[in-house]
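Subject: mismatched residue count in predicted assembly?

I count 1140 residues in my input, but I want to confirm that the predicted structure covers every chain. Input:
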Amino acid sequence: MKQITDGELKTASPEQLKEICGALREEIFRTVSVCGGHLSSNLGTVELTVALHRVFDFPKDKLIFDVGHQCYTHKLLSGRADRFHTLRKRGGLSGFPKRSESEYDCYDTGHAGTAISASLGFAKARDLKGENYNVIALVGDGSFNNGLIYEALNSVKILRSRVLIILNDNGMSISPTVGGMHELLAEMKGEPPLEDVKLFERFGLKYRGIVNGNDLNELLPALEEAKEGLKEGSVLLHVTTKKGQGYSFCESAPVATHGVSPAKKHSEYSAALGEELCALAKSRPEIVAVTAAMTDNLGLRPFFDTFPERAFDVGICEEHASVLCASMAAGGMKPYYAVFSTFLERTFDEIIHDICAQNLPVTLCIDRAGVSGADGETHQGVFDLSFLSFIPNLTVAIPKNIAEFRAMLRLSADFKAPLAIRYPREGEEGEETAVEIGKFEVLHSTMSDIVLLAAGERCLTIAENVRKAALSEGIEVAIVNARFLRPLDEKLLAGYSHCTVITLEDNSLIGGLGDAVARFYRSRGLQTRVIGFGLCDRFLPHGEPLSLMEDFGLNFGEILDAVRGAHACR
Amino acid sequence: MKQITDGELKTASPEQLKEICGALREEIFRTVSVCGGHLSSNLGTVELTVALHRVFDFPKDKLIFDVGHQCYTHKLLSGRADRFHTLRKRGGLSGFPKRSESEYDCYDTGHAGTAISASLGFAKARDLKGENYNVIALVGDGSFNNGLIYEALNSVKILRSRVLIILNDNGMSISPTVGGMHELLAEMKGEPPLEDVKLFERFGLKYRGIVNGNDLNELLPALEEAKEGLKEGSVLLHVTTKKGQGYSFCESAPVATHGVSPAKKHSEYSAALGEELCALAKSRPEIVAVTAAMTDNLGLRPFFDTFPERAFDVGICEEHASVLCASMAAGGMKPYYAVFSTFLERTFDEIIHDICAQNLPVTLCIDRAGVSGADGETHQGVFDLSFLSFIPNLTVAIPKNIAEFRAMLRLSADFKAPLAIRYPREGEEGEETAVEIGKFEVLHSTMSDIVLLAAGERCLTIAENVRKAALSEGIEVAIVNARFLRPLDEKLLAGYSHCTVITLEDNSLIGGLGDAVARFYRSRGLQTRVIGFGLCDRFLPHGEPLSLMEDFGLNFGEILDAVRGAHACR
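Triage response: the counts match. Full output below for your records.
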């Protein structure tokens, strides 16, 4: 679509603004249909973003999006309309705010709950530097369950600054919002409305609302008023929007249209999680499942439908979910906590101190591990092997395909200690083989003294391709499925001590499998040559996972060269 | 003191109960005077714990302490009086609840904010298993600032279970409690009291209080009533206690007597932090300091006194503190976030995504790094090098003494990217030398091909001792101060590629300096022999730091043997 300038937006008539909203909505729908991305949340916030751009003065004023997946209209209105067709593509626009992309993006987000803290930080910096601009945090009600939001609210009075918090209340995160705060917000929207504004007032915020966030006639005066109120102190403006607004099938299916992906090529590990957990839970009443607002994405819907009393969606509360699992385990249950790799970072502390220090039998099902792709820096799952590698008592498993994932889940049911299983979104079902804790699997055994030790489906595929290419040059290579990071298969590794061991992992090269294997040989005083391939020491941008892997550390040609080098210097 | 049995406590007269409280208080005071530990918080909760043991039926009922430092009376009342003199000593009683120690300790804690989540988990397990017991969470008002508490409160309605939450309101965490929640609680205690119980009622809790938690005459009937209320649903009982109750100098100095240590032997790094930050901030108006309820322990008091408008104690909100720092940096400030190593684990996610992914110039001042000793498993700072090692854009510095710490702080002032400096509590002032990012310092250069590469003061001391012992056997050893984990001094390391390099670090052996050095040589295709010493793969109990280091991976004899071995096999 044609770029709309700040000037055009600020002088447009009400009728023209409505037209602009229609054009934006169409552009978002068209682009997401092609590129994938967050659909219903962006359709829901078109008017709100247009109104913000009309009333405020960006980039001088600062707009901070919580999570940031709802920033498409903002991108279209801030000089990026001509590049919007590159959304989420390698080298193109990010689906999230990025300071590196535009001065209109003042703060990068991706994980929930940071926007109020960030707005307070900007406002405080402004005050201390004697500058003069407005700071606005746009936060969904789903994020309002997150503890970080509460920590920030608690700080409003401490920091004594002025921010505008817009509570974008659509009753949803990725999943429908849940919990006490949600019920309070629901009652505030009810008939008759509950006049319970005290909670926010107590925290030092002037409460205003409720405003229909899909109606510019309500929004524009409300924002003008809030802007005026900002001169006196902090304001919370409660806005309701409809996720998917304008597209009836999005409005009626906000979960399914929260994030939209181009057509899938493979099976999903998440479906296997749901199936296996349901099967296990039938005969094991102690099995419970926990998610932080991701029931469907993690494949848990069948479990929630079949065992509603043993299934818990606690909202976007990754830390609470961990402690809940740890304590349910201490109380005699067998909890499964399913979570995306990148969001597991939020609960690193509780994995250490609540789950592992107490050696409790909680199973972490870590989805979207490795390079997750189009969502970019904040969503890559490339640190989990590193940050799980040094936690005592923890076993870490990496299935080679969906069938092996199923086998690991079945094995987990009788496992009496903390267990993490990490896997990518998609893969092949494959054939099942027996799995034993701490035992690798030799996939290709040769007389060769070159071994490719690969973790997980994607790296094993690379290993197979390298092996074929090497074979065509007359070089034999063994392949081992390194399916446990902790414990390593020390017996098998010891048998390869005379070899060149080449490790492949779709994780940072720092602190993962390669380091563990090399450490094992060092600890035995062995001079085994270990060559590690993994992701390089930088944040990985958005793009297609396999192409990112190829370019950022898991390069087919380089791995093949390492094989050739090992062959040559025998 | 003599062990008081459950039976004695349950049948004691009011007069006898008062005597028991007096005896407990005396025992706690006497023991902490010798062993160190948490004083004023335990003195404040004597009556409350006695009343809980009188009214409830432990260990069948479950009592979960938030943080857990206030559990001394509970330990004295649950069969551990005879061992109480071993408090915090190696092999003796832990200062925190430990399931491994007694069935009366049902859930281990140490970091703030977990108790409500844990109580909900136990209650849910009980319901699902058809068991019948009460679950009580005892939470201080300081913890009530923490986001995890809020996440748990939000879940009360989701989990539909029954727990008793006792809000132990003494107006303090380690530091005085701050923020919106604190002000709300203060008004509830005011004259006339604010009847604002709705907040808690909204979250599905029946609010009861306010009860004087140092008066058994008020406490006992209130707990009986709460126990009765538990049959219907969850209850929040608001109790006020006086930190240090019974000892006037504790009552009047609750910060100083929160934790008590046996006499110090050395200078503290924290004092240098306060001094240097104050000196730097005089000429640099962009410097700000942030702490999560630890102003004094981290040495920031002088900064808070001198630059109150640039100093922020945000309460026990480690995550919010990180985002606040990141956003203040994005807004043009130069933030210093001081925090204990173990509590930094709470904000792993925000270090990655808010500070480092945006490459913002935040300096993390990480105190109590390495083996921190008497507080045990939950307070050791032995993972920080591991979890900081793989975060792109981050520089990680490890000073050899306090003078070098000062130099690093001065260097940080002009550093334009994220920087972490990790240091132990105590050390020698030492002499200053020039510090350059990514440059190691050769402390003893020899013609030897054995190099001790040590990180931080304690490991350098071990290295010096090993060197002396080796010299007495005619073996020369070089010593290098490995003062940066990221970036490594690659030029210097390359020069040692023909040597045996022995690394020493007071961090988990997994993922720290040793792995980084070995990875460097591997990445260059060098077969340099790297022998790593660090802490072994288990949770370290409480005890004296140097003796723990000696026994759990940094053993003088073993390191000397490694030197001998390297010498012999040249």
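The first helix of chain B runs from residue 6 to 11. Marking this ticket as 'not a bug'.
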